[in-house]
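Quick one, probably user error.
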């Protein structure tokens, strides 16, 4: 069975292409805008992409981003669970999978090549074990927040949309994303702001509001804490790399 597992960095833009094997793209650091068969989206610390064999896809990412990529034969997708994930394309990363991604990044590509089969099996099993039961419960909430990240998404509002208690909400987010609801929301809003910073000339103050931050200072504090950079530096760096 064909298997290849390695940590990769991509050039800024990878145009439309396809291949006859399945591909899991698991973010290690940074994010990627990816279109699969006309279904555009992005992946980040909390979200992976599963590209089925023959799917036409394209990618756009920062050169500094890194991804754990599993190329494998289609037989790895033959279980009912894996087929369901492949149809969804964009799949939340369970906590167990995130730990495996961090381990793979830590040991490096040379050791990954020596232990591809057992680690690849663990990665796929970790998705199958958690993502169906846990992320499906959160999926309506995740879809609503992604569609309107600037909304009033305090924990009470998120729990109400998810139809669960506050303690259940925290438990589910810890299980699926390995972080609190508000930490996940902050990263989502930062990703949204970074997209505006890269692709528009809008004032940073406007971008902050569009992304759900109270003002420019709040966006700056969040990016400094999470990304160790500021909106102005991020925009300048991205424009220089284009």
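Nope, works fine. Designed sequence:
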């Amino acid at each position: 069975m064909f298997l290849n597992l390695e940590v990769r960095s991509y050039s800024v833009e990878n145009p439309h292409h396809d291949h006859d094997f399945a591909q899991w793209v698991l973010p290690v650091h940074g994010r990627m805008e990816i279109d699969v068969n006309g279904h555009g989206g992005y992946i980040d610390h909390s979200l992976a992409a599963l590209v089925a064999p023959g799917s036409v896809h394209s990618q756009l990412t920062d050169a500094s981003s890194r991804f754990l990529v599993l190329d494998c034969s289609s037989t790895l997708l033959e279980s009912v669970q894996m087929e369901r994930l492949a149809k969804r394309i964009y799949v939340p990363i369970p906590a167990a999978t995130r730990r495996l991604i961090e381990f793979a990044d830590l040991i490096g590509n040379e050791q990954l090549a020596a232990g591809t089969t057992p680690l690849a099996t663990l990665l796929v099993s970790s998705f199958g074990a958690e993502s169906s039961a846990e992320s499906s419960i959160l999926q309506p909430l995740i879809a609503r927040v992604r569609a309107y990240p600037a909304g009033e998404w305090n924990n009470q509002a998120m729990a109400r949309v998810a139809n669960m208690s506050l303690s259940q909400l925290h438990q589910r987010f810890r299980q699926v994303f390995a972080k609190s609801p508000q930490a996940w929301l902050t990263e989502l809003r930062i990703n949204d702001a970074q997209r505006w910073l890269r692709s528009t000339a809008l004032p940073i103050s406007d971008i902050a509001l569009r992304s759900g931050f109270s003002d420019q200072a709040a966006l700056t504090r969040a990016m400094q804490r999470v990304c160790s950079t500021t909106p102005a530096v991020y925009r300048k760096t991205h424009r220089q790399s284009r």
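The beta strands are 3-8, 13-17, 22-29, 32-36, 39-43, 47-51, 57-61, 66-72, 90-92.
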